[in-house]
Amino acid sequence: MTVELSRHDDLVLIKLNRPEALNALSFAIIKEIGNAIDEVATSDARAILITGEGEKAFCAGADIKELRNRSLMDQKRGAELGQSVFAKLNAAPMPSIALINGYAFGGGLELALSCDFRLASPEAKMGLPEIKLGLIPGYGGTQRLPRLIGEARALEMIMTGMTVDAPEAELIGLVNQVVEGNLLEAGKTFASRMTRFSLPALGFARDAVRRAGETSLSEGLKCEAELSTLAYQTEDAEEGMDAFEAKRKPEFKDA
Ligand code: CAA
What we know:
Layout: E1 3-8, E2 11-16, H1 27-41, E3 47-52, E4 57-59, H2 72-91, E5 96-100, E6 103-105, H3 107-114, E7 117-120, E8 125-127, H4 141-149, H5 151-160, E9 164-165, H6 166-171, E10 177-178, H7 183-192, H8 199-212, H9 217-232, H10 235-245
Parallel strand pairs: 2-3, 3-5, 4-6, 5-7, 6-8, 7-10
Antiparallel strand pairs: 1-2, 8-9
The protein binds acetoacetyl-coenzyme A.
């Protein structure tokens, strides 16, 4: 298996394990990532962490050696496979955090962009270098990057193929934090800030915020009203407000 799943208390770590190719995404690995996300999504895990094996790379992108000599339909199916697998992270009930431990290029950065949060080691380097291959990003990069860091910076990254180092990535909002020291431990600590909350409430919050990048303010506000109304209907909302009044800690049941 080139994708490893391991349980760490209430978290699951998905690790790409192909360090000899800098964890490059063959189509087989992309399918394995999809199976791993499916497995975690139906488990009782409270958050998903994703990282790459080795000191050097999170993931150096699509496996360039597999990209050649394909029919037009195979090229289209390839992009759709990567997009649909990465989109599973957006549909999973628990939050996801990319731990960028080195190079995150092309499809590797697109995988990280599909996570809700990104932490990076100080040595991490990120970019969408597809333009240097005469290509453009095909696993969601042209859509998720501008939503995250704005059109001008996204265009600069995509149209120059530039590499962004970790401090700059933090500055422009590409990563949430640069972590000195143990990245996995930092990921666990980051996740623990939200793992005791209600998963339905976390999901409504995420869906509402995502809508902000996709629709007009008036439509987005309607969506927020609907999702916040849904949140009121949950048992967890009753529990949260009961606990506040009783001055005790809430015990959410994801219901
Ligand atoms: N695909 C296949 N193999 C890759 C790879 C990739 N994306 N990236 C690295 N490798 C392989 C190399 O071929 C090499 O294997 P061999 O030892 O068998 O030759 C091994 O990993 C180590 O790589 P390097 O020797 O190149 O390591 P380096 O430290 O000198 O350079 C690097 C590191 C700058 C990341 C360089 O490997 C590189 O530029 N990789 C390609 C990055 C890239 O262009 N990614 C985008 C891919 S296209 C894409 O992702 C499309 C999309 O949107 C879905």
